[in-house]
Amino acid sequence: MEFVAPLARTISPSLPYPRAVREAGADSVRTLAAEPWTLLDETVTQTTLLVGTSDGHTLRRVAVIVPDDSGWLDEINRHLDQTASLTEEHRATVSVLAAAHAKGMEYDHVLVVEPATIADRGPAGLRQLYVALTRSTQSLTVLHTSPLPDVLMDTTDTPGPGTTPTEPSMAAADVPEIGTDIRVRVLDRGTGGRYKVKALSPPVKVPLILTVRHGSTPPRPGEKLDCWVFAQERNHCLLTTDQRGRQPISAKMAERYLAALGVFDELTADGVALPENARERLSELKGMANRVLRRDQADWVDVRRVLGSPDRQRLNLLRDLAAETNRALKDDSLDVSRLRENLARTDWSHSLAQARETLQHRMTTLTEPTAETAPTPSAPQPEQEAAEPMASAEDTAVTTPSATNLLHTLETTAAADRTCKKHEAVRHALMSALFEADEQATSSQVVDVNRTAEDGDFLYEILGAGHSAYTDLRSGAARLLEINHTLAAPTDRLYLVLTEPPAEDWSAETLLAVYGVQLLWRTHNGWAGRDKDAALGSAQP
Predict the structure, then answer these.
(1) In percent, how much of the chain has pLDDT > 90?
(2) What separation, in Å, do the N-terminal and C-terminal C-alpha atoms of the chain show?
(3) Contacts of 286 (CB under 8 A, 6+ apart)
(4) Which residue, of 132, 214, 297, 393, has the greatest Cβ tally within 10 A?
(5) Average pLDDT, stretch 302-324?
(6) What are all long-range contacts of 386-395, with beta carbons under 8 Å and residues at least 24 apart?
């Protein structure tokens, strides 16, 4: 009740807040920070820890409450069903439900996932979050990747009518931009993996809080760290030392982003036929907004900057506008007049045009050498070919002799693998499953299967029949890493695909821990593997 009190006062400042009639233990409320790509696994882990008995015979009732329309409800249910450590009896005690359906329910232990996403729905979202956080009778666990909502971090009393807040909000001019480098000294440890810090350089007037990734080595008081602004909250800025997210937009991604940024112009132009790839480009535009909202991709800070540094509310508008237009195209019900009105109302039409101009100018600058930097040839060379456009190191495939030899070796190995009929049957089955999920799947002389979607780039390597022992998996993982090394830009997820279940039960976990490679395998009924649903997009087995 103490943890939820600031939220309750925000929702209903004039109503008296109820008082608890009994004390709870020191660990009755836990806030756990996780990375976006580990959120699902961490949810299953924490749920498993909560299941059990307190008196030796009565099973605890556990609820996992997730944001509405997030897609996590089905994902978490499937992963819990596949968790070997949960018996059928224990699994029956766990309920997974959306925040909108939690009202009136009561459980021994409650795990609330991503409270910021629930709260983002405005006043209704704050009320849903309050309901979700007050369903437990014994313990509450809050699991989040985005910073906790300000209303949960504010421990000051909400002022009543006619009073003035004693704690001023940050002035816009004083708030450092997201992505700003700041050197700090650690002062003291706070709650939820957060630390109070003081800015050393440059001087910053607003309060600063350092967030530390779950499982990382905690900093010591007095330690000096190089950080950057990860998020702007109401009364402070959130810092991190993790450099993920600060990569510049690559040339490969810039081409996709440019196409996405111009899709609304083409859809609303008079007398112009609808572009064939409009839905794909709308998915990319939605993905750009999600990159920034979720902060889970290598270039999200740069994407935010190109979009004009919008706040979360404007990003939600862009994401929803792209998703609604995509659904309208799918249903053949697009209302162009209404789309124009929505673009004008949200002012995203102008912002997207500016973003496209910004990104186009950057690409032009990269590909057209200036007079100061362009070398002057000593003499014209006969039959000289036109110069190739410049590209960043991230987007240029390695062309050294050793890399050429590696490519040749990989091509030879891939050609040999594809003489195996079982190998080819699984490869084509995988591509078919991806196509059925409305995903774009391709292959090459080296790559068995790869796809690009709004949730990242995926690379798949298939092993032939009889290659399911860990020694085979280890060799396959090494080859997969070599293939990824030769690509113009590294992929986000790597999958080793088997034609049969792995010979050792422990091999999938070991492969992921040692090589960062997920395992997927073909079964009589479809597919199996810990990350099966993400690997197949929205495909069904």
Answers:
(1) 23
(2) 44
(3) 318, 319, 322, 323, 326, 454
(4) 132
(5) 89
(6) 390/366, 391/251, 391/366, 392/248, 392/250, 392/251, 392/366, 394/247, 394/248, 394/250, 394/251, 394/489, 395/250, 395/251, 395/252, 395/488, 395/489
Angle between helices 39-50 and 72-81 (to 10 degrees): 60
Give 250's DSSP letter: P
Q: Tell me the CA distances in angstroms from 440 to 299, 324, 427, one per residue in order.
A: 22, 21, 14
Which residue from 186, 168, 116 is spatially nearest to 146, judged by alpha carbons? 116
Cis before residue 377, ω within 30 degrees of 0?
A: no
pLDDT at site 460: 94
Inter-axis angle of helices 470-486 and 507-515, nearest 10: 30
pLDDT at 54 over 70: no
What's the pLDDT tens digit per position in 479-496?
999 888 887 777 888 999
**How is residue 146 written in tokens?**
């985005």
d(CA 410, CA 486) in angstroms, rounded, equals 10
Cβ partners under 8 Å of residue 157, min gap 6: 9
Question: 124: which 2 tokens?
Answer: 């209704």
CA distance 457 to 298: 12
Q: Which residues of 495-524 are buried (b: 16+ CB within 10 A; e: fewer)?
A: bbbbbebbeeeebbeebbeebebbbbbbee
Check if the beta carbon of residue 73 is closer than 8 Å to that of residue 100.
no
Q: What would the mean pLDDT of 342-365 be, rounded to a whole number?
A: 88
Query: Residue for token digits 């090459």?
Result: 444
User: Measuring CA to CA, how many Å separate 22 from each of 28, 50, 87, 322, 426?
Assistant: 12, 21, 33, 49, 59
Q: Tell me the pLDDT tens digit for each residue of 398-446.
A: 344 455 667 777 887 888 788 888 888 899 989 888 888 888 788 888 8
Number of H helices, E strands in the chain: 19, 16
Of 14-18, 66-70, 131-135, give the range with the top mean pLDDT: 131-135
